[in-house]
TrEMBL record, chain A:
The keyword Transferase does not apply. PROSITE patterns: ABC_TRANSPORTER_1, ABC_TRANSPORTER_2. This is ABC transporter ATP-binding protein. Belongs to the ABC transporter superfamily. It holds the Pfam family ABC_tran. It is a peripheral membrane protein. Keywords: Antibiotic resistance, ATP-binding, Nucleotide-binding, Transport. The keyword Membrane does not apply. Residues 4-229 form the ABC transporter domain. It is found in: Cell membrane. It comes from Actinophytocola gossypii.
């Protein structure tokens, strides 16, 4: 089953091509990371999926329906947290939570109480007086307290402090354990790494990679720091090894993750005394996609 | 120490406000100047001037509303017409300026930023007051010049300017205190505005219950006027007895408020007031949880303000209904009234003109309420709401219904207020209330057309909707209401739907135009709804 199926989606705003044949597949029950730098088209994709924007061409299916035609029926089955939460300045946070939840089709009462405590929100204050983070908490509480199939979260943690980010991560894990589907857009790599089963990486409105984190490791390099019994010669000659720095019996090097087995075998022959290796992060993955090829980058 | 860097902050404030304050100053000077020139045109002979001054003194409503004249000359009439109103506006300018550079700065986090640099703790307040004071001095100057330009005497014009500037400054002081006490910027504006309303009311009571002088033109105000800075401003009596001692009173009062504000400022933290923050409900009531309930909740505060406003206006203008023949009896003004309000008796023409004009003004409320839809779309909650199970049609209908229901209420309050007051002074309550209710509620028909236009542009060309809506409103107001006066060609005047309503109550209401307008508005509303359902949301 797929919760979201996007195929060759195109969306332009005047001269700006926001989505340029974008593809995205989100399976039911997974937490899917939707990664891309600012302006890549994440919010635009999400808004097309929510029927807020009309697509120019391509195919988009959400929970088996047409996001534009079946908008209202589909919206009963999902909860959305936008990147910029701007609600009603005169309403209190508590009122906004209830209102949004009810408009969506109802709130789980005990869950609402629990979440207000967890996120440490004062629901009696007017939205006007809330900081960005608190406004985000209002939208998150109302979404997480809604018992729906799909949660669409557009950069939901940009205003949260680290403690609240941890609460947020727990909430997303709970959803995954309960078999719910989550689409989490982000440019914060650590968050996606911690939470997501699969990721899609987009750039300039086009999908550049998608798969599980393990699938994507072929694009990344592992950093290795090693101390060997014999002098660590011949490392630079190995295929897939970069940036070798040797200092006596110590060496630091970058290895294409696919080539790790060859390098390990070579190092074993030298007699490893100590070895630390840093696993690839999405940060590097991004660097290779955007930093390494500045042409065309905005 | 505590005032360090006041100069820098004041310069920053002036830079941010140079356009705003310039517009305020020029608009107020234009108001004063154009009033003087209108009075000069309307009352050409000394006899007409004296007569008008006497009518102002004899009408309790006129005394309460604008205050009496200070003598039987053109300048005194101009002051009677414009001074109180200009003082209120000058006070508002000060309220908004002082709050903007104190609590609003704090709320937006700007004060925290500047506060962490080498800025004294009272510097923000001092800078705001400095800017306000400079603006008030300039205001006194431009108002005096505007009066002088109409050929009025020098000393009187300077006194009138001083009265306006001084009352403005007094409210800068009041706002400085309010800004220390209130829980936030909006509350500070509310508190200072309440003080302004009270000041207006006190002097209204003072003028209304005052004693008419032996000349029958001047009035000695009763004691409540002495409790009001606007009352003090009137005591300058420009073009009348001309006194300067109110300046000392203003000086003392302003110094006292500044001292109090400074003391309070030393005893509070940045970003908080002295009054505890009012907490609201932690849960939404059942009635709030629908698009309709939400639209009502968002609209009701504004609506209440409009209801009170038009009711007071109606009471005042209905209350002088029996004096219309005296007030507008001269050949010129009767002619003017007929041009604005159509044929029939002078009283009917007066009500037709007033209620016709107010019909368009009330449509301003309708527009304001409808354009909330647009405000909610750009950087507002529409994005998240329309991602819930609320359809666009339902969202649109809720807002339109609440806006139109509010309009009906406002028109009803206007007719009821005017009818009641006129019925009491004319001695026939049922007929007056009935006639005026029909007159005002009939304005709903052209208002619906304008509302339909707004919804249509919102649905079809959202980015231009706000500008087009207010442009249409301006056309209705200027071309439609004053077109005959400006001798504009008939087809142009007919662009305004308000021109197609018969001149009630002078003429009878006919079904034809009302039905045509209703039909057109339904068409426009439907067009807007279809456009809105089919288009992209424009969220920026
Ligand atoms: N309403 C709009 N009008 C014009 N351009 C837009 C609009 N919305 C988005 N864009 C453009 O489309 C591109 C993608 O934006 P967006 O989807 O917001 O990116 P992201 O959410 O990944 O940061 C950007 O270049 C942005 O400027
Ligand atoms: Mg975005």
């Amino acid at each position: 089953m797929t919760a979201i199926e996007v195929d060759g989606l195109v969306k332009t705003f005047g001269d700006t091509v926001a989505l340029d044949r974008l593809d995205l597949t989100v399976h039911t029950g997974e937490v899917h990371g939707f990664l891309g730098p600012n302006g890549a088209g994440k919010s635009t994709t999400i808004r097309v999926l929510l029927g807020l924007l009309r697509k120019d061409s391509g195919r988009a299916t959400l929970l088996g329906g047409d996001p534009w035609r079946d908008a209202v029926a589909l919206h009963r089955r999902l909860a959305y947290v936008p990147g910029d939460v701007n609600l009603w300045p005169n309403l209190t946070g508590g009122e906004a939570i209830d209102l949004l939840g009810t408009l969506r089709g109802g709130l789980a009462e005990h869950r609402r109480r629990e979440l207000v405590d967890l996120f440490d929100l004062d629901p009696g204050k007017r939205m006007r007086t809330y900081s960005k983070g608190n406004r985000q908490k209002v939208a998150l509480i109302s979404a997480f307290a809604s018992d729906v199939e799909l949660y669409v979260l557009d950069e939901p943690t940009s205003g949260l402090d680290p403690l609240m980010e941890a609460v947020f991560q727990d909430c997303v894990r709970d959803l995954r354990d309960a078999g719910r589907t989550v689409l989490l857009s982000s440019h914060i790599l650590a968050e996606v790494e911690k939470l997501c089963d699969r990721v899609s990486i987009i750039r300039s409105g086009r999908t550049v990679e998608s798969g599980s984190l393990t699938d994507l490791r072929h694009l990344t390099r592992t950093s290795i720091s090693v101390e060997t019994a014999a002098p660590p010669d011949g490392l630079a000659g190995l295929a897939g090894v970069h940036d070798v720095a040797v200092d006596g019996h110590r060496a630091r090097l970058e290895v294409e993750t696919e080539r790790l087995p060859d390098v390990h075998r070579h190092l074993a022959g030298l007699g490893v005394r100590s070895l630390t290796s840093t696993p690839p992060t999405l940060e590097e993955l991004f660097l290779r996609h955007y930093g390494d090829q500045p042409a065309g980058a905005r | 120490m505590s005032m360090t860097a006041t100069g820098v902050l004041a310069r920053l404030a002036v830079r941010r406000d140079r356009v705003r304050l310039t517009v305020w100053l020029l608009a107020l000077a234009a108001l004063v100047g154009s009033t003087a020139s209108a009075i000069e045109g309307l009352y050409a002979t000394p006899a007409a001037v004296a007569e008008n001054a006497a009518i102002r003194a004899s009408s309790v409503v006129a005394r309460a509303f604008t205050g009496p004249a200070t003598g039987g000359n053109v300048g005194a009439l101009a002051v009677a017409e414009a001074l109180v109103f200009t003082c209120v506006l000058a006070a508002l300018m000060n309220v908004l300026t002082v709050v903007r550079h104190t609590r609003q700065n704090e709320e937006l986090g700007r004060a925290e930023l500047t506060g962490s640099t080498a800025v004294g703790r009272h510097a923000g307040l001092a800078a705001a007051l400095l800017v306000a004071a400079v603006a008030d001095v300039l205001l006194a100057g431009v108002c005096a010049v505007a009066l002088l330009a109409n050929g009025l005497p020098v000393a009187g014009s300077i006194a009138a300017g001083a009265a306006i500037g001084a009352s403005g400054l007094a409210f800068a002081g009041i706002t400085a205190v309010a800004a220390q006490v209130a829980e936030g910027a909006r509350a500070a504006i509310g508190l200072a505005s309440a003080a302004l309303g009270l000041a207006y009311l006190l002097r209204a009571v003072g003028d209304a219950t005052g004693e008419t002088g032996p000349d029958g033109m001047t009035v000695t105000a009763a004691w409540p006027s002495w409790l009001s800075p606007i009352g003090w401003a009137q005591r300058f009596e420009p073009y009348g007895d001309q006194r300067w001692w109110p300046l000392a009173l203003f000086g003392l009062f302003t110094a006292a408020t500044l001292g109090l504000a400074g003391w309070l400022s030393a005893h509070r933290d940045v970003g908080t007031g002295m009054m505890p923050v009012r907490r609201g409900r932690t849960r939404a009531t059942r009635s709030l949880r629908t698009p309709f309930g939400l639209a009502w909740r968002l609209q009701r505060g504004t609506l209440l303000g409009w209801l009170v406003g038009v009711a007071v206006f109606g009471l005042a203008f209905g209350g002088i209904g029996d004096q219309v023949d005296d007030l507008f009896g001269s050949e010129q003004s009767a002619e003017l009234m007929r041009q604005l309000g159509g044929g029939g008796s002078l009283v009917d023409a007066y009500f037709a003109a007033m209620m016709g004009l107010m019909g368009v003004v009330v449509a301003g409320y309708t527009l304001q309420a409808l354009l909330r839809l647009r405000g909610d779309e750009t950087g507002g909650p529409a994005e998240i709401v329309l991602a819930t199970a609320v359809s666009r049609t339902r969202w649109l209908v809720a807002h339109v219904l609440v806006a139109l229901a509010g309009t009906v209420l406002v028109l009803f309050a206007l007719g009821l207020g005017t009818g009641l007051a006129y019925g009491v002074v004319a001695g026939d309550l049922t007929a007056a209330v009935g006639d005026l209710l029909v007159t005002t509620v009939a304005q709903l028909a052209p208002t619906l057309v304008l509302a339909g236009f707004v919804v249509a542009v919102f649905g079809l060309v959202p980015r231009a909707a706000v500008a087009l809506a207010w442009a249409a409103f301006a056309v209705c107001l200027v071309v439609g209401q004053f077109g005959a006066l400006l001798e504009l060609p008939e087809p142009l005047i007919d662009v305004s739907p308000f021109s197609h309503l018969p001149d009630l109550p002078a003429q009878a209401l006919t079904a034809g135009p009302v039905a045509a307008m209703a039909g057109l508005s339904v068409l426009l509303l439907a067009l807007g709804a279809v456009g809105y359902r089919r288009r992209n949301l424009t969220l920026h």
